[in-house]
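Late entry, written up from scratch paper. The run itself happened at the end of the previous shift, but nothing got recorded in the book at the time, so transcribing now.
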Amino acid sequence: MKQLFFTLAFIAAVFTANAQVSENNSPSTGDYYEGLTRPLTFERMIPPYGLEVTFNKTVHVIFPSAIRYVDLGSNDLIAAKADGTENVLRVKAALRDFSRESNIAVITEDGAYYTFNVKYADEPVKLSVEMTDFIHDGEAVNRPNNSMEIYMQELGQESPLLVKLIMKSIYKNNDREIKHIGSKRFGIQYLLKGIYSHNDLLYFHVQLKNSSNVPFDIDYITFKIVDKKVAKRTAIQEQVVSPLRAHNFVMLVKGKTTERTIFTLPKFTIPDDKHLIVELYEKEGGRHQSFYVENVDLVRAKVINELKTK
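Output as recorded:
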């Protein structure tokens, strides 16, 4: 009886092993999910642009916003930002006459995504390419109508594209919501025209008017929360608020001209014993400007409910 039990166990083991061998030797379908997947349809695809590169010449691609991310499909390509720029990408072939097609992916600061299929050509027809802004209908800009926005860490849950639209709308409407904040010295007038709010971001609309004949060369602008009164021999406590975006931020205001800028700032409040000081410095000059913003002005920021961009 005992011998019969071992014989049956041996036969069962051999049968199981043969079954496993038979299963392992069966041809693979390549489908690890056994059909439980959905195919990617063409509606989900972002069609790439075609780009030609060569070894002896550089191709420049100009984007409507600063470049934040670049990925090259292979070592056959060399790409980098053009020196001194944020929105110009220069691309070259790393070796002569590479045969395999490659690709490039680019993400810009306004949340737009661009993709290119890249081929080698002895003489590329398009050496300088200007990409269009993606604030259009999807059919017109070679991407799906329902494509997702790309979000940036510093903007939180706000779409970079929406931030850009809000700044353009404030600039175009050119309303003056605030009439008591500003400075005027040496023929230069620096005004705060409005404060706006949307989700967790603030928008400051400022205007610089140069009434003199001497151009005003901007060095830098600072936003700082400081104490209203500082006792003698007491260290000044400062909290710098760095702008996240700027629309129409010019560095030179010619004589007898006016320029306006929209700054996007993270949401903040100001304690009662402090205020926000906005300082504008002239490069190699002394016509600096500054004005103060109280918390009462900040909490009255106009909430943006609708956009007017046309």
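The longest helix spans residues 2-24.
(Scratch paper discarded after transcription.)
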